[in-house]
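Budget justification aside, the reviewers requested a transparent look at the raw inputs and outputs of the sequence design task funded under Objective 1. We therefore reproduce one unedited record. The lines immediately below are the structure tokens for a 249-residue chain.
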């Protein structure tokens, strides 16, 4: 792209952002935002896969439910939220953030690295939101007590509500892990590529960063790390929508 075309492109983005932030452009739904691609929808979650090129931006949108954002890249972004100061952030690979019910924002991607994430929209109302071993809610203290660390095979607790448990599973090179629960459905999102998922009838699938597996109550998923380095998964376990008791509580 020539210098004049690049300058014109930047001006168009700046003007679009100015319209968005000033309120001239109304907030759209998360499902309508063009960079959010719905990959799974059920009674518990909508799972969106997101990729935004440097210099592009996520349009102003409103979160109609609490959502957990899983960063798959190291990206420099500026978050615009009407009525608030802009926030410039350096997002780390594997960072977990809460985008709360009612949050309205647009996001400009700066630098040279594409912005990639998986956004997990939690469709059931969430109560009792608490950080565990990660700063998922900004400004809230951590509760990483030893009593919370034994919830294998869902991993080290990162965040929890009365309805949802979010854990981090780390798998060393050449090791195998089995993830699942008897009484809760589980969503498993790969933060890194290179793990092999052993599916039904022995079918094996190599996972890329951002790929995910859904397991119903009573089912499990097996993974083997074929990398020379550690791989990680974020696991979401959901209280039964029918009101049945949760396991591990």
């Amino acid at each position: 792209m020539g210098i004049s075309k690049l300058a014109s492109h930047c001006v168009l983005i700046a003007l679009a952002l100015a319209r968005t932030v000033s309120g001239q452009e109304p907030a759209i739904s998360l499902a309508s935002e063009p960079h959010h691609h719905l990959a799974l929808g059920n009674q518990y979650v909508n799972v969106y896969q997101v990729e935004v090129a440097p210099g592009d931006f996520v349009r102003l949108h409103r979160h109609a439910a609490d959502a957990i954002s899983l960063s798959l890249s190291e990206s420099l972004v500026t978050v615009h939220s009407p009525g608030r100061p802009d926030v410039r952030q350096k997002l780390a690979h594997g960072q977990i953030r809460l985008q709360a019910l009612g949050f309205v924002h647009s996001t400009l991607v700066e630098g040279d690295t594409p912005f990639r994430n998986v956004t997990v929209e939690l469709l059931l109302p969430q109560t009792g939101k608490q950080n565990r071993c990660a700063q998922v809610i900004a400004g809230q203290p951590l509760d990483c007590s030893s009593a919370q660390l034994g919830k294998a095979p869902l991993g080290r607790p990162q965040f929890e509500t009365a309805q949802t448990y979010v854990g981090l599973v780390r798998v060393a090179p050449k090791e195998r892990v089995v993830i699942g629960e008897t009484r809760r459905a589980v969503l498993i999102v790969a933060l890194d590529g290179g793990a092999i998922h052993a599916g039904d009838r022995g079918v094996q699938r190599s996972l890329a960063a951002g790929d995910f597996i859904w397991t119903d109550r009573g089912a499990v998923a097996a993974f083997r790390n074929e990398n020379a380095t550690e791989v990680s998964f974020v696991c979401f376990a959901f209280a039964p929508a029918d009101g049945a008791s949760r396991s591990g509580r």
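The chain has two domains: 3-122, 130-238. The two ends are 57 Å apart (CA to CA). Computational costs for records of this kind are itemized in the attached budget.
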